[in-house]
Amino acid sequence: MVQWVAILTRILGHExxxxxxxxxxxxMGKELGLTANLAYSGSATVNRAEMARMTTTAIFxxxxxxGSKVIDTVGxxxxxxxxxGRTR
Length: 88
Prior knowledge:
The chain is mainly alpha-helical. The chain is built from five helices and no strands. The longest helix has 13 residues, at 48-60.
């Protein structure tokens, strides 16, 4: 699990020089909320559901050092926006 937390930490720009493995990454994952609502153990194997939950949190909820969120920089459109407001 800590391996995935480390990847997300780096992508989000929160890796700090001198971070110790694995404790500082476990702590950063907790501080960023990546591990919230998970039975998190850094040494455990991450499953797809846990990986998806951490990734979704990283995309939508975590503020990067520049004040933005990943979702702010990606041009996603909802199905309604794609169809001009029409839904099925």
